[in-house]
């Protein structure tokens, strides 16, 4: 019998079940530039669960000039947050898709207490509990340096850095060959504004998840590889 994509997917999910049926649902917290996307993308490959990046979903909508994209663009350009209702709607639709059955990695959501509370209700209703919230801890100066040199692939959403994590070939995605670009909101003035909003609006989520007993703080200043190894150990132990 020929093996098609659908039967491969069934086989893969069977293998996961045989490995203990573990589902893995996690949230990344941390300021812009702390490494959430970089680690989420690697963990997604390692554990075979999707990375759900609200920023990437919005950037795709902007590029396609959809109704959502046109609405979101003016906030994103200024470094401000898109409205809670819009973001909650996106997540609500996304986490029920079939590729999320074995788990998911949230990268960039939630970003406000309203989003977190609404998400709590959502996962309770759907009976899909969150396993862990990973908070990447880095200094403000370090994230500014990281964001100012960040390069993004618009095709596969992999992130690079001019100095810390350069692509094999200048300006070209090593994974898919896409043409890398520097995000307009990664210019220093917008970065400072995003960091201010992070401190005021998103940082309180650290306390929120600590109280729920879900928080694990990770030192985000080490190398990409060393942080990844630590994360794999934490997640394999769950
Ligand atoms: P976030 O998703 O939290 O905004 P990214 O994963 O996009 O952050 O990382 C921001 C930038 O810093 C990228 O250019 C990335 O290549 C780089 N980077 C990520 N993690 C590290 C690290 N541990 N050390 C050095 N540079 C890193
Ligand atoms: P970074 O991780 O570098 O801060 P993202 O790619 O996650 O950036 O997000 C880019 C922009 O998309 C944000 O500045 C904001 O305008 C919008 N955005 C992404 N996620 C959310 C969210 N959960 N709530 C509100 N706005 C969001
Ligand atoms: Zn790519």
Structural features, described:
With 238 residues, the protein is of the alpha/beta class. It contains ten helices and seven strands. It has helices at 5-18, 36-47, 54-63, 67-78, 84-94, 113-125, 140-148, 188-202, 204-211, 224-236; strands at residues 24-29, 51-53, 103-107, 132-137, 150-152, 159-161, 215-219. The strands form two sheets. A five-stranded parallel β-sheet has the order 2-3-1-4-7, with helices on both faces. The chain has a two-stranded antiparallel ribbon with strand order 5-6. A hairpin with a 6-residue loop joins β5 and β6 (159-161). α2 (36-47) crosses α10 (224-236), α3 crosses α4 (67-78) and α7 crosses α8. It is globular, with a radius of gyration of 18 Å. The model is unreliable at 13-18 (pLDDT under 50). The structure holds adenosine-5'-diphosphate (2 copies) and zinc ion (ZN).
In whole angstroms, the N-to-C terminal distance is 37 Å
How many strands, what sense, and barrel or not for the largest sheet?
5 strands, parallel
Structural class: alpha/beta
Strands of the biggest beta sheet: in what spatial order? Answer: 2-3-1-4-7
Overall pLDDT level: 92
Which small-molecule ligands are present, each listed once?
Answer: adenosine-5'-diphosphate, zinc ion
Uncertain parts: 13-18
The Rg value, from CA coordinates, equals: 18 Å
Q: What is the overall silhouette?
A: globular
DSSP strand (E) fraction? 5-15%
H/E order of the elements? HEHEHHHEHEHEEHHEH
Question: Share of helix among residues?
Answer: 40-55%
Task: Count the E strands.
Answer: 7
Enumerate how many helices there are, as a single number. 10
